[in-house]
Amino acid sequence: MKRLHKAGVGVALLLAVAAGAAWWAQRPAKPPPDLYRTATVDSGPITEVVMATGTLQPVTTITVGTQVSGTVMERLADFNDSVKAGQVLLRLDPTNLQARLRQARAQAASAQAGLALATASLERNRKLVAQEFISTLALDQSQREFDAARAAVDVAQAQVDAAQADVNNSVIRSPIDGVVIRRNIDVGQTVAASFQTPELFLLARDLRDMQIHTNVSEADVGQVAPGQLVRFSVDAYPQAEFEGRVEQFRLNSTTTQGVVTYNIIVSVDNSDERLKPGMTAQTRIVLQTKPAVLRLPTAALRFQPDEDDRKRIDAANKKSAAVADAASAAEAEPATASAEDDGVLTRTRGGQRVFRVWTVGPDQVPQPHEVTVGIANTRYTELVTVLSGQLQAGDALITRRIDTTGNPR
Question: What is the CATH classification number for the domain harbouring 241?
């Protein structure tokens, strides 16, 4: 009985081992680990924009200065004050200016007295010449003295006018209706206008109409045109979005560290006066909008197979070529890098740039597809035509490689 029991146990063990071996042999093969992060091709809207940073400024600003020197005696306007054209903003001490005016008037009176004497002398000598008591040479001398006296009167009067203008200019008035944006002077300060006009106030004509001055790189200005919609935000209102329109594209370029930019002026309606001069605006100039197109993930256009990927692609192509005909081998040939191929932009056709995107094939081998694209933004790019391979909505495109730790890179 013991022998029969041991034999039964042995048979059961053999059957269990055989069943386990059969299950092990028939188990499904473990799929290879994912080597790539992907994103799908889909349909939807695309808005192409140009992003730029700019500064909000009033449409019209006027710098108020002074043509005369003096000490500030009275200031009648301050920051943020609304002023009218002709309103007094500031008065300078006119004491010295008034003294020069009195001096000029005295010189003018002296010149008038000299002219009166020269006039009387000329009239008297004309009568004497008519009676032949004096020569015509004496009459010519009197005429010259009269002309000189009359010119001296004109000079003296001009000096009076200049002195009077200086006195008038000691009262600084607003040239426009507007708002005081900046004030650079206060009571008691001395203003010197000897070499250049001092800047006393900066006035803005109307803060309900504003402008954004942005700098757009030369790569993007070819698509910017007046009238295009501009969306922008400012740090002061992080939850709000504002709109404007491209008003002007200025041809005067600026080069900074080898980067060429152009100034784009954006007009902004600021009826509620929430926006203030000097605010930084993060702008998005809307170039084109398409409501429903086939879209690629923009990151897929930047993916380039690395050296390991190229080796596996070449190995797969050789294996495929060994069992395929010549035509199939020729179709697989573009996957091999050539001296002119940078891995992304391969060539142009009919003036259009041709790009290469990749899908994940059997055994995690990237499969190339050549496409032409249309408008784009940071997330999506319009798929125009597929030149090689097949792509449709729902296909997954490689956007980046995943390293052995599972992190994208």
Answer: 2.40.30.170
357 and 380 housed in the same domain = yes
CA pair distance 168, 195, nearest whole angstrom: 20
* 71 close to 92: Cβ distance less than 8 angstroms: yes
Residues 282 and 299 in one domain: no
Shared domain for 265 and 331, answered yes or no, is no
Element at 52 (helix H, strand E):
strand 42-58
pLDDT value, residue 26: 58
This model's pTM is above 0.70: no
| Residues 275, 310 within the same domain | no
How many other CB atoms are found less than 10 A from the CB of residue 62?
Answer: 16
Chain center to CA of 19:
74
Look at residue 356 and tell me whether its pLDDT is greater than 60.
yes
In a domain, 185, yes or no: no
User: What domain range is 391 assigned to?
Assistant: 36-46+294-401
The pLDDT tens digits of the residues spanning 251-267 come to 888 888 888 999 999 99
Residue 138 shares a structural domain with residue 213? no
Phi, psi dihedral angles at 364 (to 5 degrees): 60, 30
Q: What is the pLDDT of residues 92-125, one digit of tens each?
A: 999 999 999 999 999 999 999 988 888 888 888 7
pLDDT for 161 equals 94
Beta bridge partners of 54: 214, 281
Task: Evaluate whether residue 9 is within a structural domain.
Answer: no
- According to the model, what pLDDT value does residue 318 have? 76
Predicted confidence band of residue 330 (pLDDT cuts 50, 70, 90)? very low
Contact at 8 Å (CB) between 167 and 94? yes
Whether 78 maps to a domain, the answer reads no
Number of domains the chain is built from: 3
Are residues 116 and 135 part of one domain? yes
Contacts of 34 (CB under 8 A, 6+ apart): 364, 402
Give me the amino acid identity at 349: R
Q: Which are the contacts of 174, defined by CB distance < 8 A and separation ≥ 6? A: 64, 77, 83, 84, 85, 86, 87, 89, 203
Q: How far apart are CA 20 and CA 29, in angstroms?
A: 16
